Amino acid sequence: MYDVLVIGGGNAALCAALMAREAGASVLMLEASPKEWRGGNSQHTRNLRCMHDAPQDVLVEAYPEEEFWQDLLKVTGGETNEYLARLIIRASSNCRGWMRSHGVRFQPSLSGALHTARTNAFFMGGGKALINAYYRSAEKLGVKVRYETPVATMELDGDRFVAAITEGGERFTAKTCVIASGGFESNRAWLREAWGRNDLGEWPADNFLIRGTRYNQGALLKEMMKAGADTIGDPSQGHCVAIDARAPLYDGGICTRIDCVSLGVVVNKHGERFYDEGEDFWPKRYAIWGRLVAQQPGQIGYSIIDRKVIGRFMPPVFPGVTAATLPELAAKLGLPVDSFMRSLDAYNAACKPGSFNHTILDDCRTEGIQPAKTHWALPIDAPPFYAYALRPGITFTYLSLKVDETAAVRFADRASPNLFVAGEMMAGNVLGKGYTAGVGMSIGTAFGRIAGTSAAAAAQGRSLMRGKNYGRH
Fold first, then answer.
1. I want to staple 230 with a disulfide (CB 3.0 to 4.6 A). Which of 16, 323, 328, 402 is the partner?
2. Residue 125: exposed, middle, or buried by beta-carbon count in 10 A (0-12, 13-18, 19+)?
């Protein structure tokens, strides 16, 4: 019998497996995907948000705890557990040395990734390189890995883990278990149930694209909910980004994101604007746009820019629709030309002169229209004009298992003695809504390491130190 069974194969699962093995525990990992698709959503990541009080290697200046916390507080609107959030923030300041010891390498912020040189450490080679480094290290340390082994059910004795049962009927026992198998973002039926119908009678989830892995079906999240595990979070909330409507159904990753939203305007299929495109810097606000598009008729939007802003954002992977005039652009997009031009003419007329600077919260804004554009508002008047059709791109969901600072799964507010959770399946404790760049990897790394340490300790009969405050506030 293994000491620790880790279910999942992404960043959080690997961090748990490595920490448990370093603590002397024997470890078996069960990954649902084939080897070539291992890593869950982590294979599509590129950076980790890190607290630091002074410049550190690839991180410039300082990004102190309080600023990180305020950034998180702002995007979540207060729907976060401060106790656990600050634990993650502090853990993000000292994890990179450990990551390097397992083969992860870092590089300076990409030139097109605005405002992240101070806050985010980028992985050399991206998320796939990080995942491969962790797997190489795990295998060297003696962690056993089984691919194409999706777990379907869990055998529990009250709040105690007994065994995991695969879809093929295999039964795996262990002294302790860490579940890190992701949310339910690839489960279309569950997404439909969570989002329901809108006022137009549409099922918004039918038009969602999945930025990440097709293997995150939420089977174990549903299993644990049936078993009475405490949960937290709204099933309709998640990391949802506006991505190119031509992106593949699964595994489009970061390259499908459209990053010019803040530098132009966005209209719906009726040619009407619906939100302030210049509300805040893109790394702090990009993740609200998937949900905004999801709330529009047909779950589609169109980002409109002109020649003036080309070169000021990360170029999309697909070329945009181009036209010499705005009416021609509307016609190419299949939008009603009259309402489109009313929206663009009203916006252009409302733009007030200012000092445009896309690297700061500048003074270029609109006056007299709703919704306003509060920064980076330049008239769209310099041909050629460009448009990118947008769809909601789901990265991961926020309905989660409730945890304490040992990563233990809780039943009726009592911690399981040998069942732990990490990654997307507990991220909703910290992310009630919203997102800021790189924080998912911060959560997965911190709680993966915590879960692995806790599982090894429980397997070895050592007690776990717990605090007193687990509730969201």
1. 402
2. middle
Give pLDDT tens digits for 250-263: 999 989 999 999 99
Residue whose C-alpha is closest to residue 84's, from 403, 433, 343: 403
pLDDT at 53 over 60: yes
Structure tokens at 397: 């969901």
Sign (positive/negative) of CA torsion 240, 373, 436, 408? negative
Q: What type of residue sits at position 382?
A: A
Residue 172 corresponds to which tokens in the numbers above? 């795996």
Same-domain status, 313 and 454: no
User: Is residue 247 located within the same domain as residue 159?
Assistant: no
| Structural domain ending residue among the three candidates 369, 393, 417 | 393
Mean pLDDT of the chain: 95
> Residue 15, SS3?
helix
DSSP-derived pairing of the beta strands 47-49 and 106-107: unpaired
Q: How buried is residue 103: exposed, middle or buried, by Cβ count under 10 Å (0-12/13-18/19+)?
A: middle
In this predicted structure, what is the pLDDT of residue 449?
A: 98
Residue 286 confidence (pLDDT): 85
pLDDT at res. 117? 86
Residue 321: pLDDT over 80: yes
Domain boundary residue among 393, 419, 443? Answer: 393
Q: What are phi and psi of 351, to 5 degrees?
A: -70, 125
pLDDT category of residue 468 using cuts at 50, 70 and 90: very low
Pairing of strands 209-210, 171-179: unpaired
Q: CA–CA distance from 368 to each of 346, 349, 378, 413 (Å)?
A: 9, 9, 15, 51
- Containing domain of residue 222, as a range? 2-183+218-236+398-459
Rounded distance between C-alpha atoms, residue 342 and residue 338, angstroms: 6
Query: In angstroms, rounded to a whole number, what is the distance separating the alpha carbons of residues 299 and 274?
Result: 13
Q: Are the C-beta atoms of residues 435 and 257 closer than 8 Å to each other?
A: no
Residue whose entry in the numeric block shows the structure tokens 């509060």:
374
Q: Which residues, 6+ apart, have CB-to-CB distance to 331 below 8 Å? A: 323, 337
CA–CA separation, 143 vs 136, rounded Å? Answer: 10
Q: How confident is the model at residue 471 (pLDDT cuts 50, 70, 90)?
A: very low
Distance between CA 213 and CA 37 in Å, rounded?
Answer: 8
Q: Please measure the distance between the N-terminal and C-terminal CA atoms of the chain and give it in whole angstroms.
A: 40
Measured distance CA(343)–CA(337) in Å, rounded? 10
State the Cα–Cα distance between residues 406 and 462, nearest whole angstrom: 13
